[in-house]
Amino acid sequence: MSPRHSAAEARRTRERIIERSVDLASIEGLEGLTIGRLALDLGISKSGLLGHFGTKEALQLAALGRAAAIFSQEVWRPAADAAPGLPRLLAVCDAWISYLEREVFPGGCLFVSSTFEYDGRSGPVRVLLQRQFQAWEHRLTAEVRRAVAAGDLPPDTDPAQLVFELYGVMMSLNHTIQLHGAGRSPARAKAAVARLLTTG
Question: Are 100 and 166 in contact (CB under 8 A)?
Fold first, then answer.
């Protein structure tokens, strides 16, 4: 096999490992990403898997990186062309609810479950989660500020508080879907978002 083909095969194998890691982590948590389990699932050797990542922590970080890309594709991209401010906020929330309702990750939102796993720990995985959440909060906060500046939200709106409450709606929706199934919870989430983003 030529070096070029060998490198391409290595990339494909790495992609398969990351894809399986994301699915598995959403169901069993990031701590459930064991080298042995993944090697067995993918039909590769433990040494071969370790050759791509070296450590379990490196694999966890790669899974979170891929999960962030999927989240952006599912939640931000559909809203990116909406007008900045309130129209984009509404579009983001619609896409966010759809992402949770469709269970893009088989075990529910990987970020919600990972936060519960790592909120009391230290280390690179927790640091990455903090950065990912902060980046999303900053993006949402910027849209709230634009909506206030445009007069689409009341002038006394507290952007950080509003984003905090929107997070609360989505986390509640994720938990409800995972415990009880979708039922009426997506509609309730939409009603909560509409109330939070009202101009009245």
Answer: no
